[in-house]
Amino acid sequence: MIERIVCNASPLIFLAKLQKLKLLNNYNLRIPSQVEAEIIRGLKNKKEDAKQIMGYLKSRKIEPDKITILKDLPNFMGHGERAVISLAVRDNIDRVFIDEAKARTVARFKGLKPKGTLGIIWDSFRSGALDKESVELLTLELVQKELSDKRRNPR
After folding, report:
1. Are 24 and 15 in contact (CB under 8 A)?
2. 3-117 adopts what CATH topology?
């Protein structure tokens, strides 16, 4: 059975930057409309990764879910992260893909099993979709892209 996942924008963005969105092909992927809105903002800002993500979602016929945010989720989390957790709780989906550490902690408190982009890469290695050298290269590239993003967009 294909595992059901609710995915936040950051894993999609990082996998697009790595040219590895196809690593998500083995999951039954769901995204809330709030995450789609983040990607659309990227499209309006002419972000190449946003274009890739929208093409990927369209090719997989993944339609965003409309979701009401749970009232008890902390405001320090992003709108997309709160929507991901809300959708997973509403639809009894155990696994969420979220990179932000604080949001993963909140997800665990809600009984969910969070995983970030590195976890997706590791699962791909364990399933045989990636070899050891590819995992090492992707991990280094991911860290470099995350660091360069943080320099460009400090919080």
Report:
1. yes
2. Rossmann fold (3.40.50)
| CA–CA gap between residue 8 and residue 36 (Å, rounded) | 9
H-run or E-run covering 115: strand 113-115
CA distance 155 to 146: 13
pLDDT-derived band at 155 (thresholds 50, 70, 90) equals very low
**Number of neighbouring beta carbons within 10 Å of residue 149:** 14
Please state the pTM of the whole predicted model: 0.90
CA distance 122 to 9: 19
Those residues with Cβ within 8 angstroms of residue 144's Cβ, 6 or more apart along the chain or in another chain: none
Residue 72 sits at φ, ψ, to 5 deg, of -90, 10
Contact between residue 7 and residue 31 where contact means Cβ atoms under 8 Å apart: yes
Which DSSP state fits 68? P
The β-bridge partners of 6 are 30, 96
Identify which of 9, 2, 59 has the alpha carbon closest to the alpha carbon of residue 27.
2
Q: Where are the domains of the chain?
A: 3-117
104-145 pLDDT per residue, tens: 999 999 999 999 999 999 999 999 999 999 999 999 988 887
